[in-house]
Amino acid sequence: MYDTLVLIIRLRVNLSPPNWSDADSWPNFAQFPALLKFSSTSADWFIQPIPDESAFAFLGELHEANLWQEHYESILFVALIIIVQLGLIIGLLAARRKARRADESLTLAAEAAHIGLWRREANSSLVVATDQFRKIFDLPTLGPLDLKLVHQRLHPDDRERVTKVIEGAATAGQGFRLEHRIVCDDGSTRWIASHGRSQSGGNSRGYSAHGASMDITDRYEAAATADLHRQELAHLSRISSLGVLSGALAHELNQPLGIILSNAQAAEYLLESDHPDLGELRAMISDIIREDCRAGDVIKRLRALLRRGDKKPQLLNVNENAEDVLRIMNSDLIRRGVSITTSFAHELPPVLMESVQLQQVLLNLIVNACDAMERNDPSMRSITLRTFTNGSDVCIAVQDRGCGLPTNPENIFQPFYTTKLQGLGLGLSICRTLITAHGGRLWAEPNKHEGASFIISLPMAST
């Protein structure tokens, strides 16, 4: 303890002296003790009035400061920092817990949708993947997953393409989407759809990527099955169309065969003479060769229409294919009393389609046009076949003078819709399917005066 310190402060008061017995009338000297605060000491203060001298005495009992009194500001500051850090740690743990729950929910949703998630960091040969991804790619269920092992699963024909797509996306900082094949341990092939995003590793070599993959083998097999059924149906449609033309086709073959037989018999007769006319024999042999080629062309066109599709579209000259169809139908058109007027555009760009399928569509449209004019007067049975360009498309129009279209022309393209007694209602539906499969359109519209027009529009092939 220190000795008592007495401080006498004299006051000059213009008012009458205060009532010293009434503490409420004392002047406010609360600021004076603050003058005696020291950094290493503190004091307990007492106020004692001195009536005779109109003053107050401030009695201070000084003593040494303890550790808390000396460092309480620093301690409070440190405690505040600790509280803030503790709050940040608690918030970080909560955020991590929330992120982990979100990741678990995402993984669960991906597994329910049969989607495998994966991630690969830049300059790392390891791939972090979910169990579903390992299952899809037929990879080991345990242990680290090396990038080389995943790369080996890719189909040899798809490896370079997959790598280029992902690296290209990393360079551009964009997402990627592709479909590719993998080869499993048992040699089977699966189709995979992969979606993701990749980005360059900066100054370091390599790139990071993450994404999702899904097995779409069932979808591809279903599409292949549907395509096979479509081809089978188209094949049956071609056979049905040729069945309608069977009489005309028989005539097409009988005519050259009859000429061949007649010339052969005449040549045999000439050879029995002692001095056969060699010039006449040469002319007969030339006729035989010409008619044989004619019959061969008929059979060749029939075989082309009867064979199954090649599945490989090729560059086609629309005008040439239209002329081939008219040659096949020539005898049937004569038998029905139908005249054909052609208006072919010159130097048409080629289209990309199977020749057999294009001829099948044209054959079906021309047969339908003939059927629509069956009740017309012979002078009113005519078909106009035109080819032209419309923007970036090549168009073929078959115009007739028949009974016209129903109120809603789209109905005739529906499966099993028919106005014929013996019809199945599949011809136009198949025709539209074939044209649509090659990026084109097929529609019908009424003519200005009579009949209807069926228009085929196919995109020009890029050469």
TrEMBL record:
Q: Membrane spanning segments where?
A: 75-95
Sorted alphabetically, the keyword list is: ATP-binding, Kinase, Membrane, Nucleotide-binding, Phosphoprotein, Transferase, Transmembrane, Transmembrane helix, Two-component regulatory system
MF terms (GO), sorted A to Z: ATP binding; phosphorelay sensor kinase activity
Q: Superkingdom of this entry's organism? A: Bacteria
Q: Which reaction does it catalyse?
A: ATP + protein L-histidine = ADP + protein N-phospho-L-histidine
Question: Which Gene3D superfamilies does the record cross-reference, listed alphabetically?
Answer: 1.10.287.130, 2.10.70.100, Histidine kinase-like ATPase, C-terminal domain, PAS domain
Q: Which Pfam families match?
A: HATPase_c, PAS_3
Q: Which residues form the Histidine kinase domain?
A: 248-462
Q: Which CDD domains match?
A: HisKA, PAS
Q: What EC number is given for this enzyme?
A: 2.7.13.3
Q: Could you tell me which InterPro entries the record lists for this protein?
A: HATPase_C_sf, HATPase_dom, His_kinase_dom, HisK_dim/P_dom, HisK_dim/P_sf, PAS, PAS-like_dom_sf, PAS_fold_3
- What is the designated name of this protein? histidine kinase
